[in-house]
Write a structure and sequence with these properties.
119 residues; alpha+beta; 4 strands; binds zinc ion; 28% helix
């Protein structure tokens, strides 16, 4: 059986193409709008649409550029990342006491992502 993945044109948002490989996005010329466009994985696009309809509390979704939204959606749809991973990244300090403080909240994310599967 062959599994294909669907990719959607980000320009017209109408044309989709199927490929037999799974990647986050690809760039091809869209036969619909005849422009060389980025096609995103349909799974990512569905995640994007879901957030457009009901933005996540953890993210300042409305303030992201569309491409940034799609990057977030891609990561969420295609990896084990959770929205909290992005909430950390996107927090560009609303409460501004900016004394270059202890920014050690990163790279401690190696917790049990790979537990062996018993057979
Ligand atoms: Zn198109």
């Amino acid at each position: 059986m062959s599994r294909t993945r669907t990719y959607r044109c980000l320009n017209c948002l109408e044309h989709t193409i199927d490929r037999e490989f799974d990647t986050s996005h690809l760039s091809v010329t869209c036969p619909n709008c005849e422009s060389f466009e980025r096609f995103v994985n349909e799974a990512a696009y569905q995640q994007f649409r879901a957030f457009e309809e009901s933005p996540p509390d953890e993210l300042d979704w409305e303030r992201l550029e569309r491409t940034e939204k799609l990057v977030v959606a891609e990561r969420l749809a295609r990896s084990t990342k959770t929205i909290e991973d992005f909430a950390v990244v996107e927090s560009n300090g609303d409460e501004g006491d900016g004394d270059e403080g202890d920014g050690d909240e990163d790279e401690s994310a190696d917790a049990g992502a790979e537990s062996p599967i018993p057979e």
